[in-house]
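ok trying again, last paste got cut off:
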Amino acid sequence: MLGTKLDALPFLERVAAELLRIDAAEVTALADAVYEAYERGRFVFVCGNGGSGSNASHFCEDVGKGTLRRADYDDDNKKRVRILSLTDNTPYILAWGNDEGFERVFIEQLKNLAGPGDLLVAISGSGNSPNILRAVEWANRNGLDTFGCTGFGGGKLRTLAKQGLHVPLDDMGIVETIHLAAFHWVVDDLHRRIALGTPRSATEAA
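nice, full thing came through this time. structure:
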């Protein structure tokens, strides 16, 4: 926890430095993965625990609403991103967690809802959360695309997911902060392409 050793300004300077270490191509790949699922009419599922679970919910609501213009709200013909956070069905999570074990809370939802061609975005700072790994393993076996968002050394998730966004830092709070910053850019990029109809190549030079 770097904040226990650094005052506010050096802490913020460290966060800024760590942001610049991220591979921008990995952030772009996440936007592309969500957009490709949208184009194919497939579902995007997001999951995580703790702060990563909060990020999963935040990313889900941002993508669901933030890829629309106000003029689209009442347009039933406007194609929308089909996205769902697996962290938000509390009774379902509690039922599986209490009766059969917490490692089942995400995989069992996928068994009910997901199909080949869907996308699973799995967020785990350590990369070793058992419920995340089980969900990704099932998704890989059943024809889903998988994208892992990790920190620290990446854990098992970094190599298990087909694509990924990695934050190489041993500080969970900053890892989660950087994940969320990346997600906000992804939402903006998707808004350009979906709501405004502007391809990224036309915006890069702007």
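cool. The longest helix spans residues 172-195. The chain has a mean pLDDT of 95.
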